[in-house]
Amino acid sequence: MALKKTPVTGMKDVLPAEMQIRDYVMNQIKETYRQFGFSQIETPCVEHIENLTSKQGGDNEKLIFKILKRGNKLDVAQAQTETEVVDGGLRYDLTLPLSRYYANHAAELPSPFKALQMGSVWRAEHPQKGRFRQFVQCDIDILGDGTCLAEIELILATTAALRKICPDNSFTVRINDRGVLRGMAACCGFAEEDYDALFITLDKMDKIGMNGVKEELLGAGHTQERVEKYLELFTGISTDAAGVRQMGEKLAVMKEMSVAANVESAAEDKKIFENLAYIMETVEAGAEAEFSLVFDPTLVRGMSYYTGTIFEVAMEGFGGSVAGGGRYDKMIGKFTGKETPACGFSIGFERIVTILLDNGFRVPGEGQKKAYLFEKGVNQEILAQVIREASAERKAGVQVLVAQMNKNKKFQKEQLSKEGYTEFREFYKDPLKK
Question: Distance (Å, rounded) from C-alpha 19 to C-alpha 6?
Fold first, then answer.
């Protein structure tokens, strides 16, 4: 039986033309992030299964590629549960591995630590355009800084990288805070155990609209009065820093009228809104790249480990987000027993590459590429000449391919042209032949 030549479902082979773009994008991201003081690290692609299934990754924990135990440790016949045969899994993101890494090496790292990590992750999900079962993530994280500076730096660095990669695409950064979501839900009388389901429905606002969210909440058994009170919070709020403070004032008034209101929670809520407004105003004042920054109280983000500020980037002409992240102050504490402030932003590398491919992107400033093609059967003297001349060109900074000429020379040149070769030299057995 012949072996299968196509890749496994959800995986992809990368042809040279795309690989050039991927290398370019990755290098631009690395260069930008290093300019902001981020240090590159690397973590293993395999993590302990206990870490991956610790209820930190939301729905991604349902998509883990699990790894069987090896050798004498594997006894499938006697196993009663999955834990008896599985001890590892492929990482589904880079945040959980980073948290383990930091917990293990904090004493060897500066504080705060600005981490840059780029690598493949794996999720057993339904593949679609721009979404694969193996894909590259590009993350920056700031660990050990509980101030707003972490969010400000992450937004500025990520938008600078995106603007460098996609100078002609407009994009919008949407920002919110998990504290805003919780405060709105609490003021309207939703039970804390209903928050997750409530936020999942709210996250659909951009797809099903206000009426769709209302119908879904009513269908879940919530009262008309509570649902209408909740949805009214989203009306008449501007998307700038003033809108953040306006939302804060709305909730403060509601808390004062509520029997459950208390001074401590009101003060905490005020701090959340002031921090969010401060982040927005500082980013807008210091941004080098051109982009829109908007307050979006419907922004949820799916990962359950987010504890505070959350953000996403949407790019014109592409459905869904191309970058996202937020604050996750409790995850490192799961490893150490001590909470450590942490905040990160991840660029959707595959989605960016898809956008560039769809737009016919060519790597700018690419060096000159020449192909030296020699006829089959040339003597050693001619071949040595080819090699010497190619070597001289390479020393001058030119990329030179040396290859034997195919029978279908025209097709060979067409294929090389697709890879960026713009000049061809031909060498024959007969020096007079052209």
Answer: 18
**How far is residue 18's CA from residue 360's CA, in Å, rounded to a whole number?**
11
| DSSP labels, 155-180 | HHHHHHHHHHH-TT--EEEEEEEHHH
The alpha carbon of residue 243 and the mean position of all alpha carbons in its chain are separated, in whole angstroms, by: 27
Pairing verdict, β 113-122 and 39-40: parallel
Strand pairing category for 399-404 and 369-374: parallel
b/e map 308-321, b = 16+ CB within 10 Å: bbbbbbbbeebeeb
For residue 267, the tally of other CB atoms under 10 A from its CB is 9
- Alpha carbons 184 and 189: distance in angstroms, whole number: 9
Number of other CB atoms surrounding residue 191 within 10 Å: 10
Q: Are 158 and 313 in contact (CB under 8 A)?
A: yes
Q: How confident is the model at residue 262 (pLDDT cuts 50, 70, 90)?
A: very low
The separation between the first and the last C-alpha atoms of the chain, rounded to the nearest angstrom, is 46
Strands (E), 37-85: 39-40, 46-48, 66-68
- The token duo for 395 is 């020393």
What ranges in 203-309 are assigned the alpha helix state H?
A: 205-219, 224-232, 241-257, 263-286
Is 70 exceeded by the pLDDT of residue 79?
Answer: no
Q: Are 377 and 430 in contact, with CB atoms under 8 Å apart?
A: no
Look-up: residue for tokens 């002609």?
168
292 close to 172: Cβ distance less than 8 angstroms: yes
Say which amino acid occupies 146: G
**Residue 323 corresponds to which amino acid?**
A
- Pick 82 or 297 by higher pLDDT: 297
Mean of per-residue pLDDT scores for the chain: 88
Maximal CA-CA distance, the chain: 98
How many C-alpha atoms does 356 have within 13 Å on its Cβ side?
A: 27
* Per-residue pLDDT reduced to its tens digit, 1-56: 889 999 998 899 999 889 999 999 999 999 999 999 999 999 999 999 999 998 87
